[in-house]
Amino acid sequence: MSEADKQSHNETITKHEQILHYIQGLKIGTKISVRAIAKQLSISEGTVYKAFKEAEASGLVSTKERIGTVRIQRKRRDAVDQLTFGEVAQIVEGRLYGGLSGLDKTLHKFVIGAMELDAMMRYIDEGSLLIVGNRASAHARALEQGAGVLITGGFEPSEETVELADKLALPILSSRHDTFTVASMLNREMYDRLIKRKIMLLEDIVTFSRTADVMTVGRTVGDFYSLSRETGFSRFPVLDERKRVIGMITAKDAAGADERTVVERVMTKHPITAAPNITVTSAAHTMAAEGIDLLPIVDRHRKLLGVVTRREVLDAMKFAGKQPESGETFEDLMWAGFMNSAKSGTEEASITYKGRVSPQMSGALGMASEGLLSTLMIQGARNMIRETGKRDFLLESMTTYYVRPVQIDSELLVKPRALELSRKFSKLEVEVHDEQGLAAKAMLTAQMIDPY
Predict the structure, then answer these.
(1) Do the beta carbons of residue 89 and residue 64 sit within 8 Å?
(2) What is the model's pLDDT at position 151?
(3) At 285, phi and psi to the nearest 5?
(4) Phi–psi pair at 217, nearest 5 degrees
């Protein structure tokens, strides 16, 4: 890269950071645009647009159809199940009439306005959302009690109500959908968020400030040994001058090297890293498959955010496995009616799960769908491993044989059996029987996850 190119690159970086700093300084709820900021900062619209995309990914701004781009409060992961009024507008394809600065506020419940006004008001409090038709008096009363308003049927609020919404910083929205449809759309979204909340991500277990225990370019093997003695650790990320992860150095890498040797000459280059929003299970799989004990967590530019150890990942999985269910996935719903029918003390080779095929489980031809049978066999194998070995697995391959169709309302027996079972891998056979005998069979190979 020429000196001119380097200078241009550094100027772009400076302008990029200048834009992000400017956005961070804006008041929550401020509506912004690429053109306005480009003019304000005398920076090209292309550079501003790129910064906008990063700001959106970082949770600093949110762009919504019919509303535009708005400065928002960075949302906490532990509040992922709470909808903001801005997200409600997007879900119901709503139009915002007033209360722009309140779009980032979260709501804890919604109230259907299908009763007398006085009775309705008893259920409305601060942070709720009133879903109602063209009832102007209800709109104003709800705003006065600290609630947002969603008008259904495509009706518009009065000018006085819009002024009140702006004054109180509470959004008033309108959707073309009817009340039942809107409520169904919001219910589905809130339920999906309950499910997402129980999926643990790396950002849930990593404190993104742990950057002291690292090596930087120019440091020596002697420095590595000093840091190792000081911290008690034997592996560290290696960072360049811009805090990007460019390598990993361990005691094995440093062994035999002169203590004056710089770390970049002995480090492992291009180390495996992870983004903060990947699942803990995925990280566990990567660390086990690659044989690594320390995983750097980086942003999109490979700048170090923190590190996670294999033990921290396994402890997190152990904790997650003990948490109560907060929402059922389709797999949970399909398996919900199946119970272990084995007697106490039964060996794992004869574990059997019994359940019935409901009409919702049927496929296009009115029989139990192939997807259902595959899911039941996987769930049967997984539950057997959990019950007998207190472990879990990640499926690698599955060969399935569908012997004959299974009628709805049939009682099924799911019979998993371990053919090979070691600390790292397993091979399992699963059969599904109905009243007429064998209906489906599968051979599974899987990678075992360390014990809970």
Answers:
(1) yes
(2) 95
(3) -65, -45
(4) -60, 140
Q: Give tens-digit pLDDT for 404-447.
A: 999 888 999 999 999 998 888 899 999 999 999 999 999 999 98
274 and 345 in a single domain? The answer is no
Residue 305 lies in a domain: yes
Q: What is the pLDDT of residues 320-333, one digit of tens each?
A: 555 444 445 667 77
**Tokens 């879990």 identify what position?**
392
pTM: 0.50
Cα 319 from Cα 317, distance rounded (Å):
5
Residues 15/43, Cβ–Cβ less than 8 Å: yes
Distance CA 76, CA 96 (A): 24
Rounded Cα distance, 106 and 192, in Å: 16
Residues 273 and 308 reside in one and the same domain: yes
Spatial contact of 296 and 271, defined as CB atoms under 8 Å apart: yes
Contacts of 189 (CB under 8 A, 6+ apart): 83, 87, 91
End-to-end CA distance of the chain: 51
Angle between helices 136-144 and 159-168 (to 10 degrees): 10
Whether 325 maps to a domain, the answer reads no
37 shares a domain with 81: no
